[in-house]
Amino acid sequence: LDFYGGHAVISIGHSHPEYVRAISQQVEKIGFYSNSVLNRLQSEVAERLGEASGYSDYRLFLCNSGAEANENALKLASFHTNKKRAVAFSGAFHGRTSGAVAVTDNPAIQSPFNGKHEVIFVPLNDIDAVARQLEKGDVAAVIIEGIQGVAGILVPQDEFLIQLERLCKKYGAVFILDEIQSGYGRTGKFFAHQHAGIRPDIITTAKGMGNGFPIG
Question: Is 80 within a domain?
Answer without folding.
Answer: yes
